[in-house]
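Shape matters. As here.
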Amino acid sequence: MSDQEFEQVESAQPPEVQAAAEKMGWIPPSRFRGQAEKFVDADVYIKRGEEVLPIVREQNKRLHTELDTLRRESAATAAALKAAQTAIEQIEERHTVDTQKAVEQARRQVKAQLSAASEAGDHEGVAELTDQLTQLNVAVPVTKPEPAQQQAPVFTPPPELQQWNDENPWFGTDKRKTSLALGIAQELRDNGETGTGRAFFEKVGAEVDKMLGGGKQEPRGDKVEGARGGASGEGRSSSGKGYAALPADAKAACDSEARRFVGEGKRYKTIADWRSRYAEIYHAE
């Protein structure tokens, strides 16, 4: 098509038709730079646009609807995954506490059996139960008897214990005071007491005298542990008892599990938050 023919095509189209076509993207012959055989008159361009645009609009509408549906489904899936993750974390938390409590129960049973065996003079039983407590990672306040050369083993107490026992004949004869002494010794070990020999026995005896001799006893656990809890900024749980009120082995178990629950991207940002949650579960159960 020659330039003259282009001009005739352009002049043959009413101005309003050309203006409408240009709004839809039509290029008049004077500005058209493509191949002449691909040129489309304004009225034809408008007709094609009116036929094609509704189809395009419908496709866009359908695509937007599908996109909105996918977004809603994605949000629902994310919420379900978050709820499932929260439930799993709560199960892990409770499992951690329940496991620790099962260990504590086993320790209490072995301690009671150890006390009974010690009172009855069952040295073989004392040795076996002491070994069981050692496997449970508990400091045992009873010296494990050395195996004797005789066929029947005989327990030989250390000289310091023998001397202290001679000065305190109630130990081993008065069941009530003996059981109390064993319990106090275990409590001292649980609270971090590392003394040995005569000094440790004297401390146990002093505590027994406070309990049974009419002396006023300071609340050891509350005073010591309360100070620790205050220094570390630990709050109390909803039950009114916080991390400071936990037994020593429960605290150790709590802190050993902290790396599973505390840190960037984990359930708790600080160890104080995890300790508070652990204490809440522990005391609630």
